[in-house]
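Q: Joint fold for the lines below.
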Amino acid sequence: MWNDNSFLKKEMDAVEYTIKNSLRTRNKTVKEALVRFAESGGKRLRPAFTILGGTFGQYDSNTIVPIAAALEIIHMATLIHDDIIDDAKLRRGNETVHSVLGKDVAVYSGDFLLTRAFMLVADYADIDMLKQIAKASAYICDSEIAQNEQKFDTNVSVKQYLKRIGGKTAALFGISLYMGAYKAGCPRKLVNRLGVLGNNIGMAFQIVDDILDFTGNQAKVGKPLLRDAAQGIYTLPVLYALHSEYREEAIKAINKTQEEKGANLYEVLDASKAIERSKNIAEKFIGKAMKIAGELPESIGRDIIMEIIDEQLERKF
Amino acid sequence: MWNDNSFLKKEMDAVEYTIKNSLRTRNKTVKEALVRFAESGGKRLRPAFTILGGTFGQYDSNTIVPIAAALEIIHMATLIHDDIIDDAKLRRGNETVHSVLGKDVAVYSGDFLLTRAFMLVADYADIDMLKQIAKASAYICDSEIAQNEQKFDTNVSVKQYLKRIGGKTAALFGISLYMGAYKAGCPRKLVNRLGVLGNNIGMAFQIVDDILDFTGNQAKVGKPLLRDAAQGIYTLPVLYALHSEYREEAIKAINKTQEEKGANLYEVLDASKAIERSKNIAEKFIGKAMKIAGELPESIGRDIIMEIIDEQLERKF
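A: Joint structure:
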C-alpha cells in the first residue's frame, strides 16, 4: 500500500521492523502469535500519518519511526482486547490472538503491548508527548467502556455514537498526525491543525467502516458482516433506522439479525435511508478533512494525505 | 495500618486521594466499581514504599505522592485482569470488579487504569522514571504470561517459579522503593540499594502469600484457600512436594484438590516438608531484606521498613 512513494516505503519498512522488535517476550508462543498478528496486514494508517505529519517539519527518522510504531502497537493492543470481548474468531481473515493463545494469555498480551508502546514512547519522546499519548489511550478505553455500556440500547443517540467513535478511533488518528508534526518541530498552529485533520479522518474512517459492515464484501472487509449489529453494537446506520419512523421495524430486525442473516435489517436500512444518511455524515467529515488538507503547506506529505483520504474514504462507497 | 506514624499517615491519605481522583471516567457505574475496589482495603504496601524511599532524600510530597499512587494503580490494573482470568468472584472479601461490571467492561477498566497510571507518571516524573516503570510493567505482564503458560505443568522448577514471582510481584516492590529514593534525589548507590531491598521484600511477600494459601485462615487471607492449586498454578509448596520423593502422591493430590478440599494435598505437603522448605526460602529473602535495611542510613524510613518486614513477613508464619 505504501510502495508508490520510496520515502514512505522506506519509513514504513522501518516502522514494521520496530514493531516486530517490540514484540520480543520470553514466551515463544506469545511472540509468534503477536508477530503473526502484526504480519496479518493491517493498513498501518496510524504510523503512516505520524510519518506524514513529520514531513511538515524537520523530519528525523530515528525519532519519528519509534513514535509511529508505538502508536500502531497501542492500536494492536486495543484490537487484541476488542477481539477477546467480541469473542471474534477472525480478524483480517486470520485467527485472532485469543483464538491462538487462549483468552487468558491474550489479555496479558494486550497489556504487554500497551506497556511496550509506552516504553518506546519513553525512549524517543518527551514528557509532553507521553502525556498526550497516555491521555489518548485513556480516552480510547473510556470510549470502549461506553460502547459496551451502550450495547443493545436502542435509545443511543447519534451524538453519543459520534462521541464514542471520537474516542475509539478518531483520537488515535488525531494524535498520530499531531505527534509526527510535533516531533518534527512544526509551529504549534500547524501541529494543532494536523491534529484536527487526523481527528476528522478518524471520524470518517470509523463511519465508513461501520457502513461497510452492512454494504461491504466480507472478503474485502476481512471480518463477518453485520457482526456489530448482532452483538448489540449499534452503529450509525442502525441508529438512523432506530431514530426514524421505522423504529419498531428496526428493533424487530436487529433482534433477528443473528438467525436470519439480516435480511429484514437490510430492508429497514433501505426504507429509512439509513445508509444514505450515514454516508452524508461520513462525507461531511471527509469534506472537512479535505478542506484542512488542502490548506496545508504544499508538500509531499500533503499530497499523500489527500490521496489517502481519496482512496481509503472517498472511493470506499 | 499506617496510622502509627503521623507523617506516613498524612502522605498515605494523600495517596488515597490521588488514586480516587484518577478513577474519574465518564461512566458512573465503572467509576463507582473502581472506587469500591480502591476502598476494599488493599494494604498499599507499594505506595508506602515509595514514600518511605523518599524519606532517604529531599522528600517532596507534591511529586512523590503521585508516583506512589501511580504504582498502586498499576497494581490495581493487574489485579483486575488477574481476577478476570482466574474467574475469581471475591477479592479481599468483596466482589471482584468483573463480578460487578462484567468481564468485557472489566478488561477495559484495567486498561483504563494502566493508562491513567502512565498519565500520572508523565505528569510528575521524568522520562527515565517513566522508562523504568514501563519496563517493570512489561515485566509483570511477561511473568503473568509465564504463569499462565506454566498452568498444570508439574515439571515447573523452583527456579522458574522464582523468576516468575520476580516479575509478577518483586519488580513492582523494587521499583516502588527505588522511585521514591530516585525522586528525592538520593545518591545513585542508595537508590539502587533500595531497589534491591524492595525486590527482596517482594520475593518474600509473594512466597509468604503463597504459603498462606495453604496454611492461612480464609477470613484473614481474604480469598478462598487452595485456589491457586485448584487452578493449576503451582506455587512453591506444591513445587517442593512435586520435586520430592512424594511426586506421584503430589500429582494425585493436586488433581483431586478441587473436589476433596485438599485433604490429600495437605498430607503430601506435610510428608514432603514442602511448607517448611518454602518457609526456609522465604526466610532467606526476609533475612537478606533485613540485612540491607539494617545497613541503610539511620532514619524514620529505615525503622518503618524494618517494622513492615517484621509485621508483614516475619510474623506471618
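Q: Anything notable?
A: Chain A has one domain: 7-305. Chain A touches chain B at residues 25-27, 29-30, 77-78, 81, 84-85, 102-105, 107-112, 114-116, 118-119, 122-123, 125-127, 130-131, 134-135, 137-138, 141-142, 144-146, 148-149 (CB under 8 Å).
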